[in-house]
From TrEMBL:
Keyword set includes Transferase: yes
Superkingdom field: Eukaryota
Domain Tf2-1-like SH3-like span(s) in chain numbering: 111-156
Assigned keywords, A-Z: Nucleotidyltransferase, RNA-directed DNA polymerase, Transferase
Listed GO MF terms: nucleic acid binding; RNA-directed DNA polymerase activity
Organism whose genome encodes this protein: Tanacetum cinerariifolium
Name of the molecule in the record: Putative reverse transcriptase domain-containing protein
Pfam families in alphabetical order: SH3_Tf2-1
């Protein structure tokens, strides 16, 4: 999972019961203490100094993660880069597997081709239902090439 790759853990607490989670309680208490100190030190202008208190808290040592803010950001950034590299490697590996089995088919105007139909659950096509239904139908004439792998066909009525 992403959390395992980042080395984090998700702890859920109940919405109106923060006392369940001691870490939340500790954080709230720390913020209250910091705000109380701002009010005492700066009096009526405490709100002007609120960004400084926020910066101070975010850049202080947090015992739960054993890091300060910038170190945490750098560590998470490094892990995100590593996860992205691993995802790209997995995507490239899967693409190479698919490309080995892929057959590039190109057709010309006036060629006759069969049309692939998807079996939908519960839909009866050509007098058969489900897995017994035909996967390909017809022989249809190509009228024009629309894109690299798309063609317009003359369908029977």
């Amino acid at each position: 999972t992403v959390q395992k790759a980042l080395g984090t853990r998700l702890d859920m607490s109940t919405v109106y019961h923060p006392q369940m989670d001691g870490q939340s309680e500790h954080t709230i208490q720390t913020l209250k203490d910091m705000l109380r100190a701002c009010v005492v030190d700066f009096g009526g202008s405490w709100d002007v100094h609120l960004p400084l208190a926020e910066f101070s808290y975010n850049n202080s040592y947090h015992s739960s993660i054993s890091l300060i803010g910038p170190e945490l950001i750098q560590e998470i950034t490094d892990k995100v880069v590593l996860v992205k590299e691993k995802l790209k490697a997995a995507r490239d590996r899967q693409k190479s597997y698919v490309d080995n089995r892929r057959k590039l088919l190109e057709f010309e105007v006036c060629d006759l081709v069969m049309l692939k139909v998807s079996p939908w659950k519960g839909v009866i096509r050509f007098a058969r239902k489900g897995k017994l239904a035909s996967r390909y139908v017809g022989l249809f004439e190509i009228l024009e090439r629309i894109g690299p792998v798309a063609y317009r066909l003359r369908l029977h009525k």
